[in-house]
Specification:
The protein has about 180 residues and is an alpha+beta fold. A hairpin with an 8-residue loop joins β1 and β2. It is globular. The termini are far apart.
Length: about 180
């Protein structure tokens, strides 16, 4: 892909959701977005300054697809370092794909080419966990409790001091945290 290409992709997860975001990035991002986005104040996105938002409609073939909010980010202070327009429309698989299709028909290229599957991208593995030198947090975890201290594990992690530390909470089986016990004074 050359440096002058404008790309577009759905930035939110595919599936049910309240908001779907289509990100357009490249030198002609605002021009492409102007072809599909009609501002309710009849202002073009290319005339707007960076870090501004506009409410309007997504138009495809003269018909309204959805209402949307367009966010404009200018070079070089954007996520990609290029001009970026994010179209935030209603969520769901169908509508976000329709808005993306309208953007692609307006002149953007797909960010991921169909010939290059996502599996060729660099895989990110989780960072290895650091081993703890103290067995107190492990003991607390086995007993369904955790110490809320941000520093080194405190005495609350040991089973004997379970009612004396205000930083200790019990964890219920599904993972919900039960409110702190009131320590006797």
């Amino acid at each position: 892909m050359n440096d002058n290409s404008t790309i577009a992709a759905i930035s939110t997860a595919q599936g049910e959701g309240g908001i779907g975001v289509i990100r357009i990035s490249g030198t002609d991002a605002t021009a492409v977005a102007d072809r599909v986005f009609q501002n309710i104040r009849h202002r073009k996105l290319s005339d707007m300054s960076g870090y501004t938002a506009a409410f309007g409609k997504i138009i495809k073939d003269g018909e309204e697809l959805d209402e949307a909010v367009a966010l404009v980010f200018r070079t070089p202070h954007s996520y990609t370092g290029e001009d970026v327009v994010e179209l935030s429309c209603h969520g769901g698989i169908y509508i976000t794909q329709q808005v993306l299709r309208a953007v692609l028909e307006a002149g953007a290229k797909p960010a991921h080419s169909p010939s290059a599957p996502f599996s060729t991208a660099r895989s990110t593995s989780p960072r290895p966990r650091r081993s703890s030198t103290s067995s107190a947090p492990k003991t607390a975890a086995r007993q369904g409790r955790r110490c809320l201290s941000r520093r080194a594990p405190c005495a609350a992690a040991s089973p004997r001091s379970r009612t004396t530390c205000s930083r200790l909470r019990r964890i219920s089986p599904p993972g919900r945290i039960i409110p702190r016990r009131i320590s006797p004074r």
